[in-house]
Specification:
The chain contains ten helices and eight strands. It is α/β, with parallel strands linked by helices. Helix 1 packs parallel to helix 10 and helix 7 packs parallel to helix 8.
C-alpha cells in the first residue's frame, strides 16, 4: 500500500511575522492538483508565531507543530516559560517535536523526554521524536546502540505508534551539508524496523529522516523505502527550497 510521506519544516529559532508569506506560497503550491496526494506537510515555527500563522493559513493542505512542550502535565499555572499541551493545541498545532539533539544539548534528558512524549500523546498531540548519534559515536560504530538506548529510555511499551513519528537525525548531518550514504541509511532503518517490531510489536512505524535535506539530495534519500518523509531545517525556511524538495521527491 502506498504510504504518506511527511515533509516537516523545523524552523528552529528563525522567522518572524513576515515569514508567513513562505507558508502562503507553499499553500498555494499545494493547491495544484498535479502533485501526489500522499503527503503531509507540517510547519513547526517558533511558538510566538504558531497561533497567528495557523489562524491566518488554516487549510487542509498543511498542518502545524510546536518545537517543544512543557514537562508539566497541567493546562496552566505558575510555571514561567512553559507551554502546556492545551496551549499548543489552542495555537492550532497537532504535532510537537521532542528529543531534538539541539534541545537535548540544552536541557532535555531521557526522563524529561519520556515525560514530554507521554504528556503530548495523552493530550492528543502527535510526537515527532528525534534520535541520532554524534560523529564520535558513529566513528566508534556505536550508532545503532545509541539509537536503541534513546528509544528504550523514552518510549513506553504501551505507546500507540500511530501517534509517533520517529525522526532519525544523525547529529553530524544536521546543518552540515553532509548526508549519510544510502548504504548507511539502509542498515540503520532496517535495524530500527526490526528492533521496533521485536521490542514494541509495531509493524509499520513511521520513520523519517532529518539532517541537511535539500532539493538536491531528497530524491536519493527517498530511494530508501523505509523512509516515510523528512524533517527539514534550513531548507524549510524558504518556500522555494521547501517546494523543490516536495517536487523532487515525487518526480
Ligand atoms: P537541517 O536541520 O535540515 O538544517 O540540517 C534538520 C533538523 O535539525 O531538524
Amino acid at each position: 500500500m502506498a504510504k504518506t510521506i511527511y515533509f516537516i519544516g523545523n524552523w528552529k529559532m528563525n522567522g518572524n511575522y513576515d515569514s508567513i508569506k513562505e507558508i502562503e506560497r507553499v499553500n498555494n503550491f499545494l493547491k495544484k492538483k498535479s502533485i501526489s496526494k500522499l503527503k503531509k506537510i507540517i510547519f513547526c515555527p517558533p511558538s510566538n508565531l504558531l497561533m497567528s500563522f495557523s489562524k491566518k493559513i488554516n487549510t487542509k493542505l498543511l498542518d502545524y507543530g510546536a518545537q517543544d512542550i512543557s514537562r508539566i502535565n497541567l493546562n496552566n499555572g505558575p510555571y514561567t516559560g512553559q507551554l502546556s499541551a492545551k496551549m499548543i493545541k489552542e495555537s492550532g498545532a497537532h504535532y510537537v517535536i521532542v528529543g531534538h539533539s539541539e534541545k537535548r544539548l540544552l536541557d532535555e534528558d531521557y526522563k524529561t523526554i519520556k515525560k514530554k512524549i507521554s504528556i503530548a500523546i495523552e493530550n492528543k498531540l502527535k510526537v515527532i521524536f528525534c534520535i541520532g548519534e554524534n560523529l564520535f559515536q558513529k566513528k566508534k560504530n556505536l550508532s545503532f546502540k545509541i539509537l536503541k538506548k534513546q528509544i528504550l529510555n523514552s518510549i513506553d511499551k504501551k505507546i500507540n505508534f500511530d501517534n509517533l513519528i520517529i525522526a532519525y537525525e544523525p547529529i553530524w548531518s544536521i546543518g552540515t551539508g553532509i548526508v549519510p550514504s544510502n548504504n548507511y541509511l539502509d542498515q540503520i532503518y532496517t535495524k530500527l524496523k526490526k528492533f521496533l517490531r521485536e521490542k514494541y510489536k509495531v509493524n509499520s512505524p513511521i520513520l523519517i529522516y532529518g539532517g541537511s535535506v535539500t532539493p538536491d539530495n531528497v530524491a536519493t534519500l527517498g530511494e530508501n523505502s523505509l523512509i516515510s518523509g523528512f524533517l527539514i531545517g534550513g531548507a524549510s525556511l524558504k518556500s522555494k527550497s521547501f517546494i523543490e524538495i516536495i517536487k523532487n521527491y515525487f518526480r
